[in-house]
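Backbone geometry tokens:
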Amino acid sequence: MALKMAQPWRDPKSHVWNLRQRTPADLVNRLKGKTVMLPVGEGFATVKVGAMVQASLRTSDPRTAKERHAIADAALRQFWERHRTGPKRLTHKEAAALAGTLYADFARIEDDPGIPELWISAAEGNMAARSGTSTLIIGDPALAASVARRDRFGAFADLLLAREGLVVDADSHELLLKAVQGAMENVTARLRKAADFDYTPDPAAQRFPEWQRSETAPKAPAGKLTVDDVFTAWTAFKADKLTPNTIKRYGASFRSLAAFVKGREVNALAPENIHGWAEHRRDSEAVSTGTINRVDLVAVSAVFKWATGMEGKRLMRANPAADLRLSEGRAVQKREKVFRAEEIKAVLRAALAAPPEPRNPTAGFAKRWCPWLAAYSGARISELTGLQGSDVRVEGNVPVMDFRKTKTGIARTVPLHEHIIAMGFLDFARSRGSGPLFYDPTRATGKAVTDLAEIRSGQLVKWLRKTVTLDEELQPNHGWRHTWKTRALEVDIQERISDAITGHATTRVSRKYQTPTVKMMADAMAKFPRYEVG
């Protein structure tokens, strides 16, 4: 009999999926009425513990629901386990780090902080709490200050603990209260200045160490284990370590594998079974051999490898997908990967001619600017579509753009070419405020799992192919990386500098110790020739 894994429950009236579980019998009396915060999508669901715990997964899509349920279920199991093992003692550094996350939460509103009087009043309340004058206790200043601190900041401390699923002892709670008090005093002062148009960087922001979330590996379930069970456990463990796109991409491979092996015990699978599935994927599901080798088999092997290790609690005895791949015919490159001169002109002219789109303005902005930005930076289109207004700034005297979300996971700063500046990009970015330049977060639906920048990147490809006649062998988005590197070579820009600008990883160990400065990159960018599309 297969192991019964927790599954999302669908509300018959709203058709929205929920996490719905009975509170363990040994904890229900102790925890009834307490609050637990569970990660759901990009946010949290706050629910009270009763005989049952139920939280909306905020989607009616079953695939999205299953992915969100796995993450929320892992957090809930961690919550039960922490209450069983007893309270944790926070170190002084941990209390400061946890309070720092609250500082960061409040600091995010500095773009629109409201009126100064709001923060002046908040600062006065903070001062009264520190002095103890906000309470009616007299004759014992220490007690008055302690009670005032708990009254003013206790809800914030409890929120942080609930969000992290932490159960702490009384001393740690008091330590956290003091850290929260300091953090709120700091961020209130910062927001008061911002409300008065003073955006001088706050030195206090550097005082908080990074909060390290504790990790609890999933426990090995008893009974028959299926492919779905292993993937669910892996998803829960990796939820805060990988992007939603990666989990979604792996999920497609595992759904196909689970359907092929039809509920077989995962430890009974042999390399022959995985190879048979790969052939089925190619012959019956019409997936290309290259995609199977570089996506499907990579995904399955990675998850199974995790399941054989300590982090995966040795759910599997061996990895039947290790070193498997299908034979591929010799790839024939039918043309160069760079844009040809006439293709460059056609694409950049199309971008210049892209009309405004009043019903979806950011789509029009992406068509107008992203091809030109790619042409002058060699950046991946998804890096450009992910730009925020706050990412476009001036460092020293150099206008730059910060790529925070990259394929490699390594952020980088790239100088803007003088032609881009002359075309008005800086003015455009400033006019858009600090938010996303090329997508609108308010247009996202609850079903969206793919990053909005990735979605916009794909839409640009479709638009270009519809608008401009391009060779089928040419990749419109990626072609700019090859084109930029080639033109950089023509004007003798050092390879190390061009790698830093485009975000290419260096293969030479000695170069990993070199970090080109913004000035060095700006000097190189000044040599990069203008595109003439007249």
Observations:
- The CA atoms of residues 18 and 279 lie 37 Å apart.
